[in-house]
Amino acid sequence: MERDASNADVERYLHDHIPMSRAMGTKVIEASGDRVVLEAPLEPNINHRETVFGGSISTLAILAAWTLLNLRLSGDVAPMRLVIQENSMRYLKPVVGPFSAVAHPPDPADWSRCRRMLDRKGRGRVSMRCDVLCGGEKVAEFEGVYVGLRH
């Protein structure tokens, strides 16, 4: 994925390389190194209570944060693998319709530390946050730690 890619390019990349994103109906609404917004419809993510399955909410948030970091790291010369190490979700309300995950940029000090470690040791970690929204209202909160590994 390239740093200056269009939303359509980012969406195509996600669908081609992370098939679950296509199955969930994920759409890229906004994609930059400062903010990523992904959206998914209710229908392919519905559970037995006619609300969104919690796993789909978590997956969209993980994917939004991963996409933001991937875009930030896309200008690096050395190939890198970016993986999630740990995460937590807080589900605040049932999700009854289309939902979106908004990934926020990492804390600047945490990001600088991650970049230094990548340059020195070939491995760096950074914490990320996402808000999950439905109908403009926050319905879940995500926190995760991602690790970049140089090949």
What can be said about this structure in brief?
The chain is α+β, with helices and mostly antiparallel strands and 151 residues long. 33% of the residues lie in helices and 36% in strands. It has a six-stranded antiparallel beta sheet with strand order 1-2-4-5-6-3.
Question: Can you characterise this structure?
Answer:
- The protein is an alpha+beta fold.
- It has a single domain, classed as Thiol Ester Dehydrase, Chain A.
- 33% of the residues lie in helices and 36% in strands.
- It is built from four helices and six strands; from the N terminus they run H-H-E-E-H-E-E-H-E-E.
- The protein has helices spanning 7-17, 19-23, 54-73, 108-121; strands spanning 27-31, 36-40, 80-91, 99-104, 123-134, 137-150.
- A six-stranded antiparallel β-sheet has the order 1-2-4-5-6-3.
- A hairpin with a 2-residue loop joins strand 5 (123-134) and strand 6 (137-150).
- It is globular.
- The two termini are 17 Å apart.
- The mean pLDDT is 94.
